Amino acid sequence: MTTRTRAASQNLAVKSSSRRQTLETALTAALAAVDPEPLTRDALRGHSGPVTLVAIGKGAAAMCRGAVLAMGAVTGICVTSHESQVPDGVELMLGDHPIPGARSFLAGRRVLEAVAESRHPIVALLSGGGSSLCEQPVEGVSVDLIREATSALLEAGASIEDINLVRRHLSTIKGGGLTRVATAPLDTYAISDVCGADPSVIASGPTSPQPRDHEAALAIMSTHGIRVSEDARMAISKASGPAPAGPAITVLADGRTAAKAAADATGAAGVDASVMPEWLHGDAARALDRFFSSAAPGRVTIATGEPEVEVTGDGIGGRNTHVALMAAERIAGTGATFCAFATDGVDGNSHAAGAIVGGDTLERGGDHREALARSDSANYLESTGDLIVTGPTGTNVSDLWLLWR
After folding, report:
1. How far from each other are the two terminal CA atoms of the chain, in whole angstroms?
2. Taking a C-beta distance cutoff of 8 angstroms, is the pair 371, 338 a contact?
3. Model's pTM, two decimal places?
4. What's the pLDDT at 161?
5. What angle do CA 340, 341, 344 make, to 5 degrees?
């Protein structure tokens, strides 16, 4: 490396460090804006009388705490991903994510019992991650089929619409399952991790009855090589009855809430920022093309959503570190900075939430193409010092991308 090249590289590193601090501040503001506790507290003010809480998702514990701040003492059940503080009177159960495990099925049975047995009005509190954390198969469908289908669809990078369509047909909870067993009035409040905040998709819609199309679900599973026994096919067909009317669902926040807060924080730091109107969706590489083409020089462009990444190796990483490493290739040698961040703090099978990369990232690493091919992006970006590590954040509103050109 020549003296001039070395100096340019050092300047990039200094610039990248300063920009990283600004983007980290923006992420902190984004998380504060989608904190489930105050959002739920404010939404439930005015509720009175005894209620049964049923909270499911990565934000469930904080939503329970917010409910108590609004209503006082409550009883109910909370299903979430990590040991969390919940109010007295609320039973805490942990489920498995992203593939439902034994804890998820135990939690699913308990939730169905709690809803069916409640003689008080029910308040359902839903957040992202609930699809895997709380599960119970329809009669005739094995837990193994649910696990195999979920794993195959996730690894193939299937769309969330296809994944949830299959889930609704295998599960007695998804697609309005709680509404079917409830005998008491039921209200639902949700924090959305899906594009467009469609209530029927959040946690696969346990209180949102949806029409069923078992032929479409079976076709999706066939496309992805998921074997379905004849008994399971019959069970899926029988479970495709009419859906009852569902309760109104109030969406408290979603990815756009976080993106706007990040933009406001960036603007407060003296940097122009804008939120891309299009949700991030579809193949991640193509989504990255669209994102880069919409980003103007001299400002921070922000987008939110959950694009799809196919797992092609046995490495350590997730959707966000994979995208960040792809972006690092695009901005190599420039003064640009890119961030991809999972708002739940857990990106794939890594310990990171994502990464902030700069024009000098690839200079500090090895063969990034090999890392991408092996789905080993988190290990690569840990070696370059670019990971973001927060631990579980207690919320989940999809991913954030920020590009500062």
Report:
1. 25
2. no
3. 0.89
4. 79
5. 160
Q: What is d(CA 87, CA 92) in angstroms, rounded to the nearest whole number?
A: 9
β-pairing, 337-342 vs 354-358, is antiparallel
Contact yes or no for 395/342 (Cβ under 8 A): no
* Structure-derived torsion over alpha carbons of residues 291, 296, 302, 307, reported in degrees to the nearest 10: 0
Give 42's DSSP letter: H
Tokens 């990039």 — which residue? Answer: 12
261, 282, 283, 286: which is closest to 402 by C-alpha? 261
Strand ranges in 181-248 using DSSP code E only, listed in sequence order? 186-191
CB burial of residue 119 (10 Å; 0-12, 13-18, 19+): exposed
Pairing outcome for strands 337-342 and 399-404:
antiparallel
Residue type for position 170: L
Of 220, 218, 223, which Cα lies nearest the Cα of 235? Answer: 218
pLDDT of residue 16: 66
Structure tokens at 361: 């990232």
pLDDT of the residue at 164: 84
Close Cβ partners of 49 (under 8 Å, ≥ 6 residues apart): 120, 121
Give CA–CA dist 84/92, Å, rounded.
8
DSSP 248-286: -EEEEE-HHHHHHHHHHHHHHTT--EEE-SSPB-SBHHH
Separation between Cα atoms, residue 245 and residue 176, nearest integer Å:
9
**Spans of the chain, pLDDT less than 50:** 1-12, 14
Q: From CA 122, how far away is CA 119, in angstroms rounded?
A: 9
CA atoms within 13 A of residue 4's CA, in its CB half-sphere:
0
pLDDT in tens, 270-299: 999 999 999 999 999 999 999 999 999 999
Cα angle 204-104-100, degrees, rounded to a multiple of 5: 70
Say if CB 319 and CB 284 are below 8 A apart: yes
Q: What was the pLDDT predicted at 14?
A: 45
Alpha helices in 55-194 (DSSP H): 60-71, 102-117, 130-133, 143-155, 160-170, 177-181
Please report the pLDDT score of residue 42 as a whole number: 97
- As separate numbers, helices (DSSP H) first and strands (DSSP E) second, the chain gives 15, 12
**Strand 122-127 to strand 273-275: parallel, antiparallel, or no bridges (unpaired)?**
unpaired
At 7 the pLDDT is: 42
